[in-house]
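ok trying this again, last paste got cut off
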Amino acid sequence: MTASLPSKPPSLWRVYLMFLGPMILSNILQGLSGTLNGVFIGQMLGTHALASVAGMFPIIFFFISLVIGLGAGASVLVGQAWGAREPGKVRTITGTALALGALIGLVAAVLGAMFAREAMVALGTPADVLEDALRYARVMMLMMPVLLVFILFTQLLRGVSDTISPLLALLISTTTGLILTPAFIQGWLGLPRLGILSAAVASLLSTAAAMAFLAVRLRRMGHVMAPDRKLLAAFRIDRAILASVFRIGLPTGVQMVVMSLSQLVILALVNQHGSQATAAYGAVTQVVNYVQFPALSIAITASILAAQAIGEGATERLGAILSTGLWLNVAITGSFVLLGYALSQTLLGLFLTDPAVRAQGGHLLHIMLWSLLVFGFQAMVSGIMRASGDVLVPTGITIFCILVVQMGVAWALNRRIGLEGIWIGFPVAYLAMLALQTVYYRGVWRHRTIERLV
């Protein structure tokens, strides 16, 4: 799908919705792969196995976060180049970003193979799940090169308004994983029984299948990002482009890494309460991810539309892009939050078979679910500013709120009231982010001259 920015608000709503439908579905499918793995593992292998997988999540998220951050920077450049109608520059940016993603994936695979045990022990992984967690961790880290390139590719496609290709690729990946994970667990279809490794091996195979599909589809379309000779020639690190990607993406990547590191600290605090609390953490995280998807999708859409408007030289549209996104966050993310409260026990029951653990997870979910609406608001404001290349202060605000506000509140309240106190840190941090981002947006950013970066 290729969309052009309209000049009137009603058309802008239509463009948003054309982006959001495929993008929200794509994000849900991307999360669904991990969710289904959690369901299969929790139901077929038990709470012990689910705790093993949950212990690995923050480490995987660390590397994914770094690439997502860099991809956000590259997507801004792609959006501006596409808005300026310069396909050659789009390919140069894409080639540089994919080469960088492959390099990060290789580093992750090597580090994961060498230091998985040390990392899991440092996180305080419960002793009764440590060995299973290590086996799962090593396979997941070995698949990082394929996974990270795939994530980057889908991000960059959205920069040229193509949300359909990522959706179809993720549909292939999710469907393949849905078949292979239980097949490896049970030994169906003549496949070996892999136990705790089933989800990791299925993820590798399904991601590879999605990448192959994406390559064939884009070539048949004659897509600007098709893996043809032109893109292969651009598959190298261009220093000038890399500098621009780092200028925007590195602060965002650092922000994402800090967020993942904060999750490591949160997990370490949760692990102190035992493997049942770890399992509840994994299940609640799954539900929260789905409620966050619309908020993140709207923020990404706002950033893409803003980048394209800047590339076209139509900066007068930025205010309308932001206000439309904020109202959509109220309508769409707010609906997901309400559904999360209404169906919390049903959703958690997909992962947790122990009634006591499920009740504990429901209580933790209720503490912070409402604040995801606030999270969406601040993501929208920072996304608009990132589209112009202004990332240092918005990123600094987010990092401050995570390291000082969230971690401080979680640590202090964990000591005072226990496990519930850890989760109170989330809404407190999101409220602080929104307040500070809004002050910077109104007081500084709106008064600056916005210019193209490429």
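PB: full thing came through this time. The radius of gyration is 21 Å.
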